[in-house]
Amino acid sequence: MPSQPRKIIHVDMDAFYASVEQRDDPSLRGKPVVVAWRGARSVVCAASYEARKFGVRSAMPAVRAERLCPQAIFVPPDFTRYKAVSRQVREIFARHTDLIEPLSLDEAYLDVTTTHTKLPSATATAEAIRSAIRDETQLTASAGVAPNKFLAKIASDWRKPDGLFVIRPNQVEAFLAPLEVGRLPGVGKVMEARLAELGIATVADLRALDALALEQRFGRWGRRLHELSLGIDEHVVQPDRPTLQVSAEDTFESDLTLAEIEPHIRRLAEKAWAAHQREASGPHARVARTVVLKLKTSDFHTLTRSFTPSTRPGSSQEVADVACALRDRVERPADLRYRLVGVGLAGFVDADSFAAQSDLFGAIGFN
């Protein structure tokens, strides 16, 4: 751990979209609310805690949510309202620190090693933030306080909903030891199974294995696992993180073959290009060089293809043409059907530096 540990807070709004709906419509309070469009292809955006008792979770197919909880009240999402509340919450964060790293509309990391408010501790800062959110938005938030980001995120989930949990520097190793390895960031079901083959079920088991042995088995990720088992994470809070990708995707009402999805690719390319243009016209303008195509098969396997042309895409038409060419590179049976397609733009670079490089290459004959 650093000699002077950072003080990091992870704030996570409780059942955010569903809570906004229950706040704004008193008739929904205390009832199982599912934020989703109805339909065979729809997925759950959020579920109230009353609905979660029945096993309803975000990203679950809406039809399954309805089977699990027949009495659920389905409410179509209203992202304009959710974004407005999110801005309110961000304004509360900004009273305490400029080091804010939003992860989504409903969660963020804050570095409160030093603050504007001069409160006596990170715990006091977290309490002040949660209190202001409750008073000003009539919503609740959970928070975790820890010496680094990954521990703060684990802590924020520890006493949900409407809870606060603190992991102090001298508690880190003891806190982590009994946790299942699946609680560590980046350890999904596949990695968890591979670790189980080595007899590793808990963080304490992982810590007992030599770092070199982990690195020999899993490469650089093995060394990272060893660091996480000791509570080491040097990733800093990054305010105003640069955009990595803009995209648009759509789930079909009925599964389609590759030959049938071109109109959808072209429509989504227009949406992705519109999002790109907003990024390219801001005060810190950035432009994308890579086109990405995403496909999800009827049995939920995800495929991605990407291409970086020598000249960056200059219109939605060019994006669509590249995405369609990527579709033709998918080596799958012609009769295989797909339930989702997405088109994205990635490989963002600073617009001014990109223009300067282009001018230089043109001047010396590399066009």
From TrEMBL:
Record-annotated active site: E107
Site (Substrate discrimination): Y17
First-level EC class: transferase
Catalytic activity entry: DNA(n) + a 2'-deoxyribonucleoside 5'-triphosphate = DNA(n+1) + diphosphate
Listed InterPro entries: DNA/RNA_pol_sf, DNA_pol_Y-fam_lit_finger_sf, DNA_pol_Y-fam_little_finger, DNA_polymerase-Y, DNApol_IV, IMS_HHH_1, Rev_trsase/Diguanyl_cyclase, UmuC
Reported cofactor(s): Mg(2+)
Residues where Mg(2+) binds: D12, D106
Subunit record text: Monomer.
Family: Belongs to the DNA polymerase type-Y family.
Function field: Poorly processive, error-prone DNA polymerase involved in untargeted mutagenesis. Copies undamaged DNA at stalled replication forks, which arise in vivo from mismatched or misaligned primer ends. These misaligned primers can be extended by PolIV. Exhibits no 3'-5' exonuclease (proofreading) activity. May be involved in translesional synthesis, in conjunction with the beta clamp from PolIII.
Name the record gives this protein: DNA polymerase IV
Gene name tied to this protein: dinB
